[in-house]
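Protein Record: Sequence and Backbone Structure Tokens
======================================================
Tokens: labelled as protein backbone structure tokens, with as many entries as the chain has residues.
Task: work out the structure tokens from the sequence, keeping to the layout shown below.
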Amino acid sequence: MKIPGKEFLANVLFRKSPSFFRYPGGEDTAVLIHGWGVRAGAMEPLAKMLNAAGFTVLNYDYPTSKAHIAEHGKRFLELFREERFPGKLFFLTHSMGGLVLRYALAEMTEAECRKIDAVVMLGPPNRGSRLAVPGRFRGAAKINASLGDMAPGAKALEIPPPVFLPVVGIIAGNFDGKVKPAYTALPDGFPFEFCRVACTHPGLRRPVNTGTPILNFFRNRKFAP
């Protein structure tokens, strides 16, 4: 574990193995998982916001293109299980990070799933993203293993359900050109709260756009105050 500091960005850019960046805080813990094509530094503004609100924060860092999403989920779960959480546990994901978490949830025990108080997903491609279609072209997976997994209709989107689904909230961007709001929904039959904000896909990672609904959901299980 490494506490973020002045060299945080450089460490993230060159780090190859998945790991957590830790922001020490209170007993309650928020675990963050970033999306495709970026590293943990992209989630740092949200990590700092949650830390300032009293949470201990674990900001997960992993090389998104090096493996299929199912593999990312298994590797995340391995590291997650090495942690201890004395208080309440929350998850915040952006984009592909939501799929990584869903794969991890599918492998968790019921006790592990019930330990999670709430999950907020920012612009998750639960039903795919049309911008990921090029990832299904011949030979594309050799360059970027995970991109094609997010194309609409991809087999990788058929994620097994967890034995217990924690409370889930989804925030979509009205101007998201990567994952349309309708594509963020969980599969039919799975309950979730939904919220739309006026921002782009990267803008979902900015606390000025999503900070208030995230904190509301973690505290009250609803986006409204």
